[in-house]
Design goal:
The protein has 485 residues and is mostly helical. The chain contains 19 helices and 2 strands. Strand 1 and strand 2 form a beta hairpin. The termini are far apart.
Length: 485
């Protein structure tokens, strides 16, 4: 098809041009003769208003600005870090204190009520003992314990943490830490990827893409493991509640437990600085680059939307991931506890084999075996430890057979662990090892995909593992030396 060209000599084209000019003239009269003047005046008015807000005049008092007032406090060299510790302590205290009652109710429902019903149903169906045990005492009980212990604290912690993020506070934390990261030879943006690591280390590794320098990005990837991820919070909170909180009167237990968890998280940040400093002066030598960090404006938290999204995007995601890994772990533990070789179960052989080394570093064979079983996900450490402790102590009164999860509250859990040889040293070193040890398999795989190198994935896994063994060994020896004096 040929396209007709517009030409002034073309009668139809001339008529169209006349119509356009007539319409333009009509619209010009409708907007008025002062349209251009009004437009320019509005532009200059907006510019003056913006300049007035951004300028301080010496002859007049500064205008009140809420964002600047808050920033003077939360990014202050004097008050910035104390306020940061106070806020995170408050979040952990609310989590620890608020999770006890719903956790007990869930445990009663899932473990005390539903479990006996399932056992009775299996007996009526005539299921063989091994299938009954594998499905109900292994898979179901392990999964039910994960739900009862992890769901309440996560339901409290993640919305609170997300509210701080939604309000705009977390970028201020990154601003406070930026100068320290620079001095440690790392990139300032590593503070942002570290904040992501507190949710999930795999996500934190992906977040290092914002760092342009390959050298500094590798430092951020390797050290992201020292940010306590979702899966390690339940271990820290439970151990701190049972052992650290028990050292003080009950009315102070929640606060002291929260301070202990904050202390461990802070130690992780300090380890990030130390390891970054070491890497930047050895394997990953080079100059630290600079960047501009833009602080977003504060926003009123959208409380209900934040609660909903944090429950769906974080709590349910982490809980589902824990369940996915807890079910096969429960099955594996039940099988290892009920398959015997030479008069003892496979699990007992492994625990006895790991025990001498575990005691040397202030832990025990149960904890080391649990960390091997839980390589796929940190979320199942505590249920694995408890199931193996039931097995190793022979305290089957807590359950219905070997390798069975039990129905227990805090006092029963503490009694079981103490029967299994746990002391305050064991608890402290477990909190330290939980912080420092190797990343989960998901994070290791993410590191391999992001770096494209098996070498850096191996270093990222083995370096923190070696550090975990070294730190717990030193703490155990110093502890025993002081205790023996």
């Amino acid at each position: 098809m040929l396209k007709q060209e517009f030409h002034p000599s073309n009668s139809s084209g001339a008529a169209a041009a006349q119509n356009i000019l007539a319409k333009a003239a009509q619209l010009r009269w409708e907007v008025g003769s002062s349209f251009h003047e009004n437009l320019v005046e509005a532009i200059y008015t907006d510019a003056a208003r913006i300049a007035d807000r951004a300028t301080t005049y010496p002859d007049k008092p500064p205008r009140f600005n809420l964002d600047r007032t808050i920033d003077r406090l939360v990014t202050s060299r004097v008050w910035g870090f104390p306020l940061m510790f106070l806020l995170f302590t408050l979040v952990f205290w609310l989590t620890i204190s608020g999770a006890n009652v719903p956790s007990g109710l869930l445990a009663t429902l899932l473990l005390d009520t539903i479990h006996p019903m399932l056992k009775a149903g299996a007996a009526n169906m005539g299921l063989p003992w091994w299938l009954d045990g594998l499905l109900i005492d292994g898979i179901y009980m392990g999964t039910a314990w994960v739900v009862s212990v992890m769901l309440p604290p996560m339901t409290i912690f993640f919305p609170l943490f997300t509210l701080l993020e939604d309000f705009g506070y977390l970028p201020r934390v990154a601003f406070n830490l930026d100068n320290i990261f620079k001095k440690s030879g790392a990139h300032g943006k590593q503070s942002l990827s570290m904040m992501m690591g507190f949710g999930c280390n795999a996500a934190g590794v992906i977040a290092t893409r914002i760092i342009d320098s390959p050298r500094e990005r590798l430092i951020a990837i390797i050290t992201n493991n020292f940010a306590l991820c979702n899966g390690r919070w339940p271990t820290q909170i439970l151990v701190a509640t049972l052992f650290i909180g028990a050292l003080v009167p009950s009315y102070l237990a929640g606060l002291i437990s929260a301070l202990a968890v904050v202390g461990v998280a802070t130690l992780g940040v300090l380890l990030s600085f130390a390891v970054s400093w070491g890497l930047s002066r050895t394997l990953l030598r080079g100059e630290a680059s600079t960047f501009s960090l833009e602080l977003p404006p504060y926003r009123p938290p959208r409380i209900w939307q934040t609660i909903y999204t944090s429950l769906i995007d974080r709590t349910m995601y982490v809980l589902w991931r824990a369940i996915v890994f807890a079910a096969p772990a429960g099955a594996a533990i039940w099988l290892s506890a009920n398959i015997h070789l030479g008069g003892a179960s496979i699990a007992e052989h492994l625990i006895n084999w790991f025990n001498p080394f575990g005691l040397l570093i202030g832990l025990n064979g149960v904890i080391l075996l649990a960390y091997i079983v839980a390589i796929p996900a940190n979320e199942i450490i505590i249920p694995t430890v408890l199931m193996l402790t039931v097995l190793s102590t022979g305290m089957h009164g807590f359950g219905s057979g070997a390798g069975v999860m039990f129905e227990a509250g805090d006092s029963e859990t503490l009694n079981l662990l103490q029967t299994g040889g746990w002391t305050l040293l064991t608890a402290v070193n477990l909190m330290l090892f939980s912080l420092i040890h190797n990343p989960c398999s998901t994070t290791i795989y993410t590191i391999y995909k992001e770096t494209g190198s098996a070498k850096w994935a191996a270093i990222s896994a083995l370096l923190p593992l070696a550090m975990g063994f070294a730190v717990t060994f030193i703490v155990a020896q110093v502890w025993r030396l002081i205790a023996g004096m």
